[in-house]
Design goal:
Blueprint: H1 3-15, E1 16-30, E2 37-51, E3 55-59, H2 66-73, E4 81-86, E5 89-90, H3 96-105, E6 106-109, H4 123-133, H5 138-151, H6 168-180, E7 186-190, H7 198-215, E8 218-222, H8 226-232, E9 235-240, E10 243-249, H9 250-255, H10 260-268, E11 318-322, E12 325-328
Parallel strand pairs: 3-8, 3-9, 6-7, 7-8
Antiparallel strand pairs: 1-2, 1-4, 4-5, 9-10, 10-12, 11-12
Helix pairs in contact: 4-5, 4-6, 6-7
Bound molecules: adenosine-5'-triphosphate (ATP) and magnesium ion (MG).
Magnesium ion (MG) binds near residues 66 and 67.
Amino acid sequence: MTGTENMLASQADAEIMIEMSGVKKYFPLRGGFFGPTLKVRAVDGVSLTVNRGGIVGLVGESGSGKTTLARMILKLVKPTEGVIKIDGVDITKATAEQETKMRSEIAVVFQDPASNLNPRQTVESSISRPMIIHGVKKSDARAQAHDVMSMIKMDEHYLRSYPHQLSGGQLQRIAIARALVLKPKVIILDEPTSALDISVQAQVLNMLLDLQESMNLTYMIITHDLNVIRYFSDTVAVMYLGKLVEYGHTEEVTGNPRHPYTQGLMGASPILDPSLRGRTKKLLPGEPGSLINLPKGCRFFPRCDKADGRCEKREPDDVTVGPNHTVNCFLYDGRKAGD
Ligand SMILES: Nc1ncnc2c1ncn2[C@@H]1O[C@H](COP(=O)(O)OP(=O)(O)OP(=O)(O)O)[C@@H](O)[C@H]1O
Ligand SMILES: [Mg+2]
């Protein structure tokens, strides 16, 4: 490599915030007393990169492995196989020192606002606690708790409140404040607005977008709501039974979905655009299969109306169908990018 190539390569690396390659998570399941150990293949070979400041949306039916993927990034579960790098550091091989740093760099906001907070602690204690755990002096942690309230657009008097005194939207803002105080690089948002009233959803999403821009945060958002994906994320990753079946720019994937599963998901999503109301929705037929007994070929084959002879024999490869747009389907095999 020449000096310039080296420089370009390291610049490109510096742009990548989340990098996953061949990531798998199999949960063992005991098959009776002396029976064979069965495995739940929750995540089964996911590769994905997210640039610094990017927002990736993860969609897929219940049980497709979205939360498990996020939990691996958060180091709450260990991958069975594969590499996960956050800002260039392989989190599975991190030293104790790197690990402590990493715990402050990757934050999470879960769906249920109440589960993010201790009911017996004031908002101030809840926000200060992560900082104190990471060695920030109590007085400094308090001062920062006051500062963060303006970032989440809440009055400082709420610092004295207890969770039961707050609304769902306010609780979720406090959960976001807790995620922000350690100045993370990455925030995982697992269904952050699904428990909220629709009018509050938009406010919380807008606030998250403002914070993302001002702090150059990288987000991974998990949601069942394709309208949230369209509004919020710049790229989208579609998961089906532990694998990514389609990945690309949100406009591309939602406007021109290529994988039959993505097409089905788009058809099954509630139509909020009033001009399109009344249009018949095509619901995704059937149920996702079992993660213990996956079909030999494409795992969407049993539900796919476009399947042919190849689909049940072996798993398809990822095919590039456009700039930064890949599809895991035989329909596009043999085509060149842009076809
Ligand atoms: N600790 C565990 N032990 C065994 N199986 C697990 C464990 N955690 C998750 N699973 C299984 O892994 C699969 C994927 O679960 P996961 O929670 O990642 O799905 P999800 O896409 O987040 O679903 P949802 O949309 O319902 O939140 C499921 O079949 C689940 O039962
Ligand atoms: Mg989940």
